[in-house]
Design a protein that fits this description.
This protein has 45 residues and is mostly helical. It has one domain. The protein contains two helices and no strands. α1 runs antiparallel to α2. The longest helix has 20 residues. The protein is elongated and about 35 Å long. The model has no long low-confidence stretch (mean pLDDT 76).
């Protein structure tokens, strides 16, 4: 489940980077959330 959330957040972040429309802070917030989810996944094991 966490892997799916991680992949979706990364894809949304990349989509925001490469399109003309970016939501500013929201895109970077998605990246931070994706990294946090990945770290939680690694810690839990």
């Amino acid at each position: 489940m966490l892997e799916l959330i991680f992949v979706v957040l990364i894809l949304l972040w990349l989509l925001g980077m490469f399109t003309a429309y970016t939501a500013g802070g929201l895109i970077h917030l998605l990246l931070v959330v994706a990294v946090v989810v990945l770290l939680i996944r690694l810690i839990r094991g």
